[in-house]
Amino acid sequence: MCSQICPRGDLLSIKYNPNCFLCQIVCLKGEYLYVAYKSTLASSLLHKAGKRGLVSRVKRGVFVLVPPELGSATEYSGNPYLVARRLAGDAPSFISHASAMEIHRMVTQPQFVVFTSSTKRIPNRTVGGTEFRFVLVKPDHFFGSAKHWATKQESVDISDLERTVIDGLRQPEYCGGVTEVAKGLWMRREDMHPAKLVDYALRLGVGAVIRRLGYLLELYGIAPEAELTRLRGVLTATYLPLDPILPREGPHVARWRLQVNISPQELEGVRAT
């Protein structure tokens, strides 16, 4: 036999044998099969294994082993964060938006879409019933990530606490709206670093983010006046909505050049989260 199990028991390494179809298969950490499509026999074997529910296809050349306790679960895709990383391939990426909010315990409802930010344009995919959405970011906006252990053996990059808030304020449609981002900010306010939030907002240089962040930090008393002054110092005269996915209505707040189109009751209700 040309297959070998490493002492840790989580790596199947294959010695090259041109006459053996097993040499077309590499299994990393006991869960993912990487296949070189050079053998019709290997391809046929995995197709049959998929039909029997032994493996599930993630993308071309990558399959995940279905745990025996799940039986013939043909839609099993494994840990969703690891799947997202593998779908991104070699492109720089990190788990972001609503998915990062869930990891950081900033939401009260389960999330059913996995969001990943990457400097490469990657098509959205649905794998094993889970939707994976990829958000394109500029290379100079690729900052503010941290390691998260998805399993005992493997970690993934995720947006850190402050970057998660910034991303939510830039693209609230990927987080359920600004109110949901405000809830996450309030829930983790004791762990937030106001100066870091302001640094990230200024580094990103997006006026809407600066306005929304400043307004929320002041409303909930999370940042000192010195940090708020840094944000106000770069505002232009243009008014932008607090939540871009809601109708453009409501009072204008000159202090932040912001149209507050979320009701005071809803904003105050965030404190009860």
Which descriptors would you attach to this protein?
273 residues; alpha+beta; 3 domains; 4-stranded antiparallel β-sheet; 4-stranded mixed β-sheet; 15 strands; 21% strand
Q: Count the strands?
A: 15
Can you count the helices?
9
Rounded to the nearest angstrom, the radius of gyration is 23 Å
The geometry reads as elongated
The amount of beta strand, in percent, is 15-25%
Largest sheet: 4 strands, antiparallel
Widest sheet: strand ordering? 3-4-6-5
Low-confidence stretches: 1-30
Instruction: Give average pLDDT, whole number.
Output: 83
Give helix % range.
25-40%
Distance between the termini: 59 Å
Number of domains: 3
Q: What order do the SSEs take from the amino end to the carboxyl end, as H and E?
A: EEEEHEEHEHEEEEEHHHHHEEEH
Strand pairing plus helix content: what structural class?
alpha+beta
